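A note on notation is needed here, since sequence and fold are reported together in a single record. The reader may check this reading against the record printed directly beneath this paragraph.
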Amino acid sequence: MNQGKPIRVLVAGLGNMGRSHALAYHNDPGFEIVGLVNRSTPALEPELQAYTIHPDFATALAELKPDLCSINTYSDSHADYAVAAFEAGCHVFVEKPLATTVADAERVVAAAKTAGRKLVIGYILRHHPSWVKLIEEARKLGPPYVFRMNLNQQSSGPTWATHKSLMRTTSPIVDCGVHYVDVMCQITDARAVEVRGMGLRLSDEIAADMYNYGQLQVLFEDGSVGWYEAGWGPMISETAFFVKDVMSPKGAVSIVMDPNAKSDDIDTHTKTSVIRLHTAATGPDGKFIRPDQDMRMTGEPGHQALCDLEQAFMLRAIREDLNLDRHMADAVASLRICLAADESVRTGQPVRL
């Protein structure tokens, strides 16, 4: 790797993810933070308090001339900020979802290619050793697959306030769904052909045309099928809130969650505890040949450590000129599926892709 000068980075958006990414840049000598962007002045960790907070992204981009823009703002600004950064000659890290429409996502990818700059999308699970292992074991089983996944969050207080802010632009099955649909796409390699969705508004604290509970179903070209469910709010059940399970004719691989975990704990969303491998093969007596195998994932990275790994990948992508074509294509594909599910929720009709 060309160690060179530190990559000068402008960090836009100082919510949970923005602050975590800013800490990752602060603690990595490969980066130098040249400024932060946020409309308000939030409470920041001590390490970040010395950096200047700029109220306007375009002005900060023009004045500071960073090498990298890290975009962690609300989803509806992602595409415009990313394209502006590419046009200014920057590399871009952008939190998921890449955009709020497929056309905007494709516009960002096209801008990255035109500028000859790197685009990394914040799929944090791609940098998690346990999720990498889950995908590897599932691929060994072979298609067709059944994907069963959810992440419901019983939220209150500040967490519910954050969820309500997110739902001004993005439903839970789009905001969270892109992660888990991305996992499905990495396992099957097959193209999604049809998506169905259903959703329900369970609170009068959100807009009349928004829903805080949703489920999508996706059908793939190789016969694989999957569902993903997400709900946010004080009314959401803590029962079976975390299901991560892949089945195939040869068996199944699952993440087994700690029974004491809480759904609104951010580390719960990534820590996996145990990966359980079940093999379907039976002997002459019809009984299973092998017992289920539990792989204990010790020393798991927490949320901040995962953000550190994600930004270490961003640094490698720039310095080693990594080919990110598949990375970008997968991000558009998972967004296309989740937005089709949102369309299906609103129209009541399945969407052919």
Notes: The two ends are 40 Å apart (CA to CA). The chain has a mean pLDDT of 93. The chain has two domains: 7-121, 126-304+334-352.
